[in-house]
């Protein structure tokens, strides 16, 4: 039996959040419904952040309400604070994600607070999620390079990973937010992080700005990671990370993993269908 490597699908959230023009609710729902047929176990559907900060995600509750849920899939939402957590749970999110940064510059730009303050805001989310029996995933952004503070020291990433681990995140996703990581810098970062958390608790979230994301995934597999975030059609970017291009494309990750002899559980034909839908939603390159 080939070993399983899981792709966590990001297009409806990380993929669409950076699109400037308004995308119709029906198109967002159609994308999630198509993805639900592809074989994913987890799909990030939207985020419950300030609509002033990320207007494209303002209708996330309506997306959750409109999708045809398939049993066995966890439909996830990003939540920066208690207000977001409460809205995500009311909308029916199966799991939520909190998101921190490994650099102070990006924390300020993305969350309007320091790293320490962001972790404080996450504490009540963790408490509520525990009481509600809701799983919480953690993200760490700018794990190799920050658009504001330059190269990120691996020990800074490890420190934030340790905090998220201590808070009770079931998995921690390591974001190369601006896609500047190389197999060398990703490996150095992972070696530091693996001192704090086992590979089974980690995921790679690599944007593909420099075309190295697939190589970075391979380097991460070498160190034991078996979960990677990706978005069909290579959609996406972060509005608060200047120059951040799309997430690595799910269909490309799937093809590489299959070529390497791994099982992904995904249906390539449905992935192509979803990628075509995603590409139609993509506005002009910024
Ligand atoms: P702030 O302005 O400091 O917040 O933003 P505030 O508490 O002062 O509130 C300001 C206004 O926002 C208030 O409304 C609040 O009610 C409202 P007003 O009184 O002005 O009408 N507000 C909310 N509304 C809806 N939902 C909420 C919420 N919270 C406050 N949850 C805040 C702080 C965290 C809210 C803001 O900075 C924010 O929303 N940031 C999110 C930015 C974001 O979504 N970035 C992209 C996702 S992260 C990412 O893409 C990286 C990742 O993919 C990994 C990687 O690639 O590295 C995960
Ligand atoms: Mg991202």
UniProtKB/TrEMBL annotation:
PROSITE patterns: PYR_CT (PS50991). GO terms for molecular function: lyase activity. Keywords: Lyase, Metal-binding. Residues 5-272 form the Pyruvate carboxyltransferase domain. SUPFAM superfamilies: Aldolase (SSF51569). InterPro entries: Aldolase_TIM, HMGL, PYR_CT. The keyword Ligase does not apply. It holds the Pfam family HMGL-like. Gene3D superfamilies: Aldolase class I. Belongs to the HMG-CoA lyase family. This is Hydroxymethylglutaryl-CoA lyase.
């Amino acid at each position: 039996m080939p070993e399983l490597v899981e792709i966590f699908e990001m297009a409806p959230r990380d993929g669409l959040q950076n699109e400037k023009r308004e995308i119709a609710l029906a198109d967002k729902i159609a994308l999630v419904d198509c993805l639900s047929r592809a074989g994913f176990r987890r799909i990030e559907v939207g985020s419950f952040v300030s609509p002033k900060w990320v207007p494209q995600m303002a209708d996330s509750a309506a997306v959750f309400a409109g999708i045809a849920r398939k049993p066995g899939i966890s439909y996830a939402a990003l939540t920066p604070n208690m207000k977001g957590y409460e809205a995500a749970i009311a909308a029916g999110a199966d799991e939520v994600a909190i998101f921190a940064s490994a650099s102070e510059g990006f924390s300020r730009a993305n969350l309007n607070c320091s790293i320490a303050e962001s972790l404080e805001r996450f504490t009540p989310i963790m408490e509520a999620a525990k009481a509600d029996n809701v799983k919480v995933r953690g993200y760490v952004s700018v794990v190799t390079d920050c658009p504001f503070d330059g190269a990120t020291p691996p020990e800074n990433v490890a420190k934030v990973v340790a905090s998220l681990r201590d808070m009770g995140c079931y998995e921690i996703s390591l974001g190369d937010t601006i896609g500047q990581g190389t197999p060398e810098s990703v490996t150095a970062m992972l070696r530091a992080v693996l001192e704090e958390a086992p590979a089974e608790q980690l995921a790679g979230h690599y944007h593909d700005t420099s075309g190295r994301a697939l190589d970075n995934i391979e380097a991460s597999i070498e160190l034991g990671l078996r979960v990677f975030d990706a978005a069909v059609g290579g959609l996406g970017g972060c509005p608060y990370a200047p120059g951040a291009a799309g997430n690595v494309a799910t269909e490309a990750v799937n093809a590489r993993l299959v070529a390497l002899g791994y099982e992904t559980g995904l249906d390539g034909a449905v992935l192509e269908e979803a990628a075509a839908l995603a590409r139609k939603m993509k506005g002009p390159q910024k």
